[in-house]
Fold Kynureninase.
Amino acid sequence: MVDSESEGDAAADASRRDARERDRADPLADFRERFEIPDDYYMDGNSLGPISDAAEESLQRAVDQWRDQAIRGWTGSEPPWFWYGERLGEELAPLVGADPDEVVVGNSTTINIHTLVGTFVDAREPDEPRGVLVNDLDFPTDHYAIQSQLRQRGLDPDEHLHLVESRDGRTIETEDVIDAMDTHDVGIVFMPSVLYRSGQLFDIEAITEAAHERDILVGFDLAHSIGVVPHDLSEIGVDFAVWCSYKYLNAGPGAVAGLYVNERHFGESPALAGWWGHDKESQFELNLDFTPAGDAGAWQAGTIPVFSAAPLFGALELTHDAGIDVIREKSVDLTTYLIDLVDEHLAERGVSVGTPRDPTRRGGHVALEHPEAERISEALRDHEVVVDFRPPNVIRVAPAPLYVRYEDVYDVVEIVADIIDEKRYEKYEAAGDVT
């Protein structure tokens, strides 16, 4: 007869063998070698993805072009810096399900929220509702930008920015979003595709359909889904969208952002006009009257930041080589595996899952909830496990599919269990997270 400790060791060995078997069968396993992983277990790719060989090469290519060509690089490099925004838009279009001319790279996510929300508030007729519907679990910058745009138009945010409230502090119900469209003077709905704290994936199609039935425009912030969740923005009929490229796209800190505008809105006047959004054919005539580009390029503002854009070429090469559908499949498998391990090993230690268990309602990360989440997060970093903390009690764990293994997930759960059992978190102070 086997004693309990031996039984436990046997079960652990079987679990680890299972994880390794999953890794052997993983069609994306070889992509891990393309990345420089700075820690033993990097589970923070939903904040900043690590560098890949392809991203580093495309950045170095731009540096070399600057050295060798100087100003000639704007037109003589390959690809020409002058066309970076449009060329990267073509590369990104399949990931969001759009036509190439509906996507462009430029600005930052916050600036793109400013210009697109401002544009579509202006596009509403004087007798149409101009309020904007958001939710109370949004990432704060979305609200800051929208409030600013409303104030600039003489619209009091207290009256025209409407919040869909969460029922549980973690998620937003689709029916509550739709009900709010009828309750307030809503002209625009602006929602995230994935909630940054809990990882809830929104039903973009249902929200868009309901909005359009009410003659409401709809936009989405795809920051926590692009590169890990496929989208069909054009087919669904989404009016506009924004995103960053430093999370699952792995294009580097402060990498250039992107935007989508449905072609039916081409010709609208950008709220933040700038010379880089001018019609390219006449841009260097330097006329004082703004002639916007005839596609999504019109919503570019300032000159493309070449070194913040160049790594995206290489990063997208890896994403396309892997295939967004394959990435999504592995992402769902990894997060499901993580949730199952939490239920099996961490629930009895006070850890709960704050992310929807239905994979169709889940993005690429899992929110683990614990009263000591902040201090556990700090302890994890000292064990070479990089996660992040979000107040008041969430440890975000992002098993990014291109470089995280199933065995990594298994090990992280084991380390969390050990930290809790040994109370290793007690030597840390709760000081807040700035990641």
